[in-house]
Description:
alpha+beta, 10% strand
Amino acid sequence: MGIRSWFRGAAPAVEAAPKRQRVEPKLSGLPPRRQYLGAAPPRLLADLPAGAAAAPNRDIRQALPVLRARSRWLAQNDGFSKGFLRMLRRNVVGPQGFTLQMRVKDERDPKKQDEAANDRIEAAWGEWSRKGVCEATGRLSFTMLHQQLVTGLARDGEYLLRKLRGARWNRFGFALQVLDPSLLDENLTVGGGAASATAYGYRMPAGHMIRMGVELDGFQRPVAYHLRTNLPGDDVYRAAERMYVRVPAADIIHCFLSDWPDQARGVPWFDAAVRRLAMLDGYSESELVAARVSADKMGFYKYAQGADPDDVPADLRDQAGLVQQSEAGSWELLPPGIDVTTFDPQHPNQAFKDFVAAQLRGAAACVGVSYNSFANDAAGMNYSALRSTELEDRDEWETLQGNEIDGFLLPLFEDWLKAALISDALGGLPPGKFWKFHAPAFIGRGWDWVDPQNEVAAAKEAIALGIDSRTSIVARRGGDFSAKVADLKREQIEMEGLPVMQPSAPAPPRPAEPVTPAT
């Protein structure tokens, strides 16, 4: 038999040698070794997903409209959520907003700064930031606009702006228009490919795709934004217009906190606290009503035991109800045959406070602040604990400030500077030296020291040791060291010729009164 015939035919059976199998010792009641317990299939975790993890963008697309609507409901109706949003505005943006500090170097001496250019750009930025200049509606200053954006970042999970260019807006040729994130249709998702087209006939280049209204290239970089022409449910009537308008990504600012590598849209920060806060709001309302009922001390009329209904006056019996308004400290004489049963609910119950605090701790952890700040509750905390939570909250605010600087302010300043140079709004600074003048630094608001005496002493020692600088210390408090030096110089000039004010000497101690011995 040839070798080919041998392969075509049945191969002779070859008995394989038995393999030695390692027998694992069985330990009754114990899970296998080297296994993630979170992936084990116990009965108590049956409600958790057991399959492969879904794509984050799919989960966001399905949940975002409902999450955003419920988050906006909390922002309108829940006191704790509304308080958090206000706290966010106060601590991330603050009353004065972010301060621009230019650091343009002198071309003749790079060790020095071009103070004239710095002052000119900072003054122009301050002019542009005024109310009626920087924003399309004319109702907001830049600080007010930024506070609104930070509120939307937490409430809606993202914020959206459109850059407006041209002399019609201001002498800088640059303004901003705040857009509602709902203009980005979550259901407008189209796969890539040369033959793909959107709902209104736009044909995308090869390799592009649209995810929840955001057009992306092959590297997941935004290329354009497909905006609705009007908000869903808006009562403005529009005719003879297409459903979407495509705006290039160069004209859009889209900011959100990203948790996934290819995430295309932001998620409201109350996502994991919506159920907790909404149900807590309903529970608190029920307890409030029950407490009011309890305070009213309601009662019910009934026939006394063994009473004859005929003994009750006919007019009361015909009314079939004895409803009386309670009056403090008064009792009435009842008709014959009528008795009273009191209704005395005890609300709120003793566990109400601890239960509410436990739910608010979970909600505070979801949005990233301490329970004391979120619930406005500092009862039972000593100074050290309050100082520790205050510093942790400040770390969170500074992190969010850094995100705003990197994701919003620095890219915005670059576009503003280009427009201002082209429109000759910077007092003759040449547009050809853009990269020389593009040297901004934004400083967020700071906070006063928690323990001023000890922290000032520590800062003084750090400066003496050379491990810290006056510039960084002033910046941590939200100030500009150069402006601080200018203020000190101005004060010295204004105080020249004035008598030096010496601190008043402390009053001498009052002599102790003689003690009269007891008789």
